[in-house]
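Lab notebook, bench 4. We co-purified these components, and the gel suggests they stay together. Before we commit to crystallization screens, I want a quick structural picture of the whole thing.
Request: model the full complex, all chains together.
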Amino acid sequence: MLIENMSMALHAIRSNKMRSFLTMLGIIIGIGAVIAIVSVGDSMRNLFTDAYKDVGFNRAVIMVSWDVTDFRMTDYFTRDEMDRVRDVYQDKIQYIDSDANTEAEAVNGRRKVKYQFQGIDSNYTDVQPLDIIYGRALNTADVKGAANHVVLEDKGAVQLFGTADCVGRTFRMTINKDTQEYMVVGVYHKDISPMMAMLMGNGQTQAGFLPYTVLTKSNDYFQDLNFYVREGVDVNAFLAELTRYVAKLKGRPESEIRTISVVEQMGSVDTSLSAMAAAVGGIAAISLLVGGIGIMNIMMVSVTERTREIGIRKALGARTRDIMIQFLTESAFMSACGGIIGIILGVGLVKAGGAAFQMTVVVRPSVVVMAVGFSALVGIFFGLYPASKAAKKDPIEALRYE
Amino acid sequence: MWKKKDKLPACVTENVREDLIKLVDVVKVYDTGSIKVLGLKRVNLTIKRGEFVAIMGQSGSGKSTLMNILGCLDRPTMGHFYLDGIDTAELSADELSAIRNRKIGFVFQSFNLIARTSALKNVELPMTYAHISKKTREERALMLLERVGLGKRYEHMPNELSGGQRQRVAIARALANEPPLIMADEPTGNLDTASSVEIMELFSQLHREGATVVLVTHEENIAAFAGRIIRFRDGQLVSDLPNVPQSQGQEETAKTEKEGAPC
Ligand SMILES: Nc1ncnc2c1ncn2[C@@H]1O[C@H](COP(=O)(O)OP(=O)(O)OP(=O)(O)O)[C@@H](O)[C@H]1O
Ligand SMILES: [Mg+2]
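Here is the predicted assembly.
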């Protein structure tokens, strides 16, 4: 009987193709939009997760807030203070540095390449593994001795020396008005997705590392501590603890100590993505409501048009339930068809968009299943009234209907 | 007696009674709000199993009203209608549906086939509501279409068939669940003379094979096929006379003609 109802429903929908399609449109658009936007959201989340993975989930910085009106010299950190923090929180902090960066032009004969150098400690590769293809990473001796040694990305190495295999080669560079010679000790390679590259900028500036001691001399002051928390440590709880410590160290109230962590930023991305999802959910709900009303409307028309058919069926032995199920199947079928077309449309749109932006898009199967199920439910819900109207018709009256 | 929970097929086979139809003081009142119209006024009537009855009368005399009650589409306002010993007044709408499905085969003046649905599917319909398997349904529907001379037309839609052919599909459909009672309200009303005769031959044949046939007609020559003619006037039964049905020879010639005719 179920198969029979299905085939009758399909028959009814097929015999009024255009009308059925127009009726489905609301559902198609609603479901299509949901699928598209949910998938875009999922893809965005993946993208951000990738980006943060790149930075390190356990990374954070701490500083005296820039917002304070009476910024003093003592609000800067010193190397001694950094060492103290490292010692006190040895069991919680895996890596710490002075967050030193510099943009400088490397000169090799007539070749000139702009670099963004990050000053790191020798155990940096523990928290951010580097894929060294030539030479080595920076070691303790480099850092202790503040040696003019650098590790370059292969891309930039090629620009500067014409080859990535340039270990031992030297170039000149001016940092803080001080021109010196620097030597390449290692070259690394890094895979970056096209989308990430786009987000990171034009790619004119090349990346490289040098000992932080080259940028932060022993009697320097610097603004913030850049550190990676050990695995298994609750980042937020630790940041609270460290805030108390730094507040005391700097003689500032805790409210004037600022921390920025990847965990916290990911949370805010999640929050904004969830907010977007909620907004989309609202729009989708309205569109499904409108679609559902459209289905209800057309089912009412259909029931009236087919009054005589209902009479005939009843005369031939259809019970109230049989007629009810027949029309419910039809509206559920129509709505589910709309849902399926909507999914195809939504997925197609997302895939096309993904291809255009060279972005890997994800379509969760659970979302697809839910969309079909939900659209069928919409069909059943909005089909209930027309179907019960059909089922309640008096057979004699219905048979006499012209 | 009939209990509500009984399975219907059982009662179809068990309740083999002499009186298939028994009306006792049946009154039907149509309440149209302002005025009450008396459709039937205390009708008493008994039709035995295997009879071929024609019901005649002027327009508005209550023939259709009677047919609706006999066909379990409607219930009497007063009095009792026993179909195969079952008092229909006690039945719910769904139980009446089940009775119509298994015990009654309807043939209408305007054919009432389901549009855009093949002859085969139309004939299958009563069996679908009786939850008969698809295979059995199709076999039986094909056999029935064969029997009414439309074996090759099973895939045709109603609008691709002539009036006479449509009515033959309707008759095949009426026979689907082998009901004991065939009800026909002016089955030849929309047909030309030749088709009318063909349809009536079909009814005569069904009657000879044991079916009980009750048909309403305005035309004397159609009523002449029946074995009993009942006349109504103003909702009352005014005459009830036996009739000698038309000869069989005429029927045989009609039958061969039909087989030879291109379908
Ligand atoms: N649904 C209804 N509401 C009110 N009055 C009705 C209804 N159906 C029938 N009647 C009345 O009941 C009476 C009998 O009608 P019925 O339809 O049984 O006549 P009939 O013999 O079938 O006529 P015809 O030969 O024209 O089909 C008529 O007076 C008619 O007006
Ligand atoms: Mg009538």
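Residues B 30, 32, 37, 39, 57, 59-65 surround adenosine-5'-triphosphate (ligand 1) (CB under 6 Å). Worth comparing against the SEC data before the next meeting. DSSP finds nine helices and ten strands in chain B.
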